[in-house]
Amino acid sequence: MTRTLSDQTIATVKATAPALREHGVEITSAMYKRMFANNPDVKDMFDQAAQESGEQPKRLAAAILAYAENIDKLENLGGPVMRMAQRHVETLVKPEHYPIVAENLLAAIKEVLGDAASDAVLAAWGEAYWVLADILIAKEAEIYAEQAGG
Ligand code: HEM
């Protein structure tokens, strides 16, 4: 199933780019804190040095900002998508992990942005997340299949 975003959803996500530029690392740091507290098995998938140095929260924040800015021209994201998918396959990310990130990311957006994260903003990001997740899941499936085929 291919998900499509309405013009309204695209506009709502794009309008959050300045807030993401300012608070992105705060949001992703809060996201990992929540996710690791509730999912120790997911925590084990991550390099904890890259968490403590702030590197991975920065990488995720940059990816989310780039996505918000390019949501109406996703072809610009080919390179970064490939890199993310390769890293995900190396760390054995599977489709069933994506709802866990979705839930914790949306909760972190709400936690950090407060009233600015209106129901409309959260709904738009909830939809937009799954468009990117579907792209990554499909690319990762291709890489897993290539590996299996030798
Ligand atoms: C739309 C959702 C997601 C986005 C935008 C995303 C983004 C990223 C980015 C930008 C990186 C860094 C790649 C690099 O090395 O340059 C990364 C790495 C990683 N991601 Fe994701 N990711 C997503 C979903 C997930 C999910 C569902 C999981 C599973 C729990 C996951 C687990 C990981 C792990 C384990 C790494 C390696 C981090 C490390 O080196 O410690 N990601 N991801």
Describe this protein's structure.
- The protein is mostly helical and 150 residues long.
- It has one domain: Globin-like.
- Helix content is 77%, strand content 0%.
- The protein has helices at 7-15, 17-38, 40-43, 48-52, 55-69, 78-90, 98-113, 119-149.
- Helix 2 (17-38) packs across helix 7 (98-113), helix 6 packs across helix 8 and helix 7 runs antiparallel to helix 8.
- The radius of gyration is 15 Å and the shape is globular.
- The two termini are 28 Å apart.
- The model has no long low-confidence stretch (mean pLDDT 96).
- The site of protoporphyrin IX containing FE has 22 residues, from helix 5, helix 6, helix 7 and helix 8.
- Residues 42, 45-47, 50, 56, 59-60, 63, 83-84, 87-88, 91, 93, 97-98, 101, 129, 132-133, 136 line the site of protoporphyrin IX containing FE (HEM).
Largest sheet: none
Question: Given the structure, what is the number of helices?
Answer: 8
Report the C-alpha radius of gyration, rounded.
15 Å
Percent in strands: under 5%
* CATH 4th-level superfamily: Globins
Helix content: over 70%
CATH class: Mainly Alpha
The average pLDDT value, as a whole number, equals 96
Shape: globular
Backbone structural class: mainly alpha
Query: What is the CATH architecture assignment?
Result: Orthogonal Bundle
CATH topology: Globin-like
Helices and strands, in N-to-C order?
HHHHHHHH
Bound ligand species: protoporphyrin IX containing FE
Query: What is the end-to-end distance?
Result: 28 Å
